[in-house]
Amino acid sequence: MTNLTQKQLDSHWMAYTGNRQFKQDPRIITKASGAYYTDDKGRKIFDGLSGLWTCGLGHNVAEINEAVAEQIKTLDYSPAFQFGHEKSFQLSEKITEFLPTELNRVFFTGSGSESVDTALKVARAYWRKKGMGTKTKFIGRAKGYHGAGISGFSVGGIPANRTLYGQGLDSYHLPHTQVPGTEFTNGMAKQGAERADDLLNLITMHDASNIAAVIVEPMSGSAGVIVPPQGYLERLREICDQHNILLIFDEVITGFGRMGGDCGAIEFGVTPDVMTMAKQITNGAIPLGAVAFKQEIYDTFMEHGGPEYMLELPHGYTYSAHPVACAAGLASLEKIRSENLIARVKEMSGYFGDAVHSLRSSSTLITDIRNYGFAAGITLAAPDGEPAKRPFQVAMDMWEKGFYVRFGGDTIQLAPPFITESEEIDRLIDALSDSFHKLA
Ligand SMILES: Cc1ncc(COP(=O)(O)O)c(C=O)c1O
């Protein structure tokens, strides 16, 4: 049991948490190793979402721990502006090994939200540098999640994350790709690519001369794993090319293996102009985000940078390329490669997908199941008009049984660590089946 006092519990306003409910019945995690947490009651809990889509390698990874310890003893911090340290250059090169070759210039941030902010700011500034300063509007997508910043919620499309916050950036939204008739598709649906054509309507409405960029997650994660329909991303790419609009892939979840490919762009075969990343870079051990750009974007800033002592891009964060985070990133990405973990995800994703779809019969309230790689989303109906209630009940029941799964909106989300064994998938699915049965 936790020794925390009520005063301590009350003093922390927790992120994206039902604080009142949590503080009555705190779920306190004390340790983690491999695919498991330990809670304050000493129970072992399977990590069904790899932290927050962060810890594909599992927890307490010796190589990352050692790299962090070594780095903090050697160089704990160095100024992010005007001075450098070797690890950031090594890591940027390493990151590009996981991306399409055209994305070869990497900017560091401290989180996914900062990466999105960076991508959007650079998109506007890029057009201005090219003499097209009217290109300032952004196009996001319904159900998209792009972080908690003002820019992220503006282009994001999850209503609950938007309604409280008033005016954001000048942004418009494509429809999501959950097309009726594609429910319970294992992998990419055949229908739905036509939803990319809505971009043409937005271009007609606002004119390409006013639009800086389109930003989408190749696979929407936080909205409950919405997999791109076949041909959809290709069509977005085509329209952006035809109308001189930058295409940004937000790969904060899909980067570095979750899809069974090096990143979503490679797995789905479509190259954006800009890619945002975070989470899995350091395996969640230390906060770090990154944004990769096509070289032409970088070169545009260099060519229009003024005298060489001047900044080409007045933008950055105190913790951009933090040396300890870079050390963690290098160790994490090296381990993903040396253990061949992305191939493992690909190999086991069929097993995982079939297992997840076997849940369909466990409750009449399940209206959809979607999956790709090591990610799955299960939608639950809300006959009483309270869509978030049943996912919460399922997640709490799972926690009681020793499983952590994410509940968000009307969905349950699964993203097991890349190291998960098939028996662990079986146990997770059995436990979920039991929890769903209790709902019916
Ligand atoms: C696609 C995507 N973009 C951005 C973010 C924001 O990342 P962070 O929470 O590190 O700011 C997230 C977080 O879940 C995400 O899934």
UniProtKB/TrEMBL annotation:
<comment type="similarity">
    <text>Belongs to the class-III pyridoxal-phosphate-dependent aminotransferase family.</text>
</comment>
<dbReference type="InterPro" id="IPR015421">
    <property type="entry name" value="PyrdxlP-dep_Trfase_major"/>
</dbReference>
<dbReference type="GO" id="GO:0008483">
    <property type="term" value="F:transaminase activity"/>
</dbReference>
<dbReference type="GO" id="GO:0030170">
    <property type="term" value="F:pyridoxal phosphate binding"/>
</dbReference>
<dbReference type="InterPro" id="IPR015422">
    <property type="entry name" value="PyrdxlP-dep_Trfase_small"/>
</dbReference>
<dbReference type="InterPro" id="IPR049704">
    <property type="entry name" value="Aminotrans_3_PPA_site"/>
</dbReference>
<keyword id="KW-0032">Aminotransferase</keyword>
<protein>
    <submittedName>
        <fullName>Aspartate aminotransferase family protein</fullName>
    </submittedName>
</protein>
<keyword id="KW-0808">Transferase</keyword>
<keyword id="KW-0663">Pyridoxal phosphate</keyword>
<dbReference type="Pfam" id="PF00202">
    <property type="entry name" value="Aminotran_3"/>
</dbReference>
<dbReference type="InterPro" id="IPR015424">
    <property type="entry name" value="PyrdxlP-dep_Trfase"/>
</dbReference>
<dbReference type="InterPro" id="IPR005814">
    <property type="entry name" value="Aminotrans_3"/>
</dbReference>
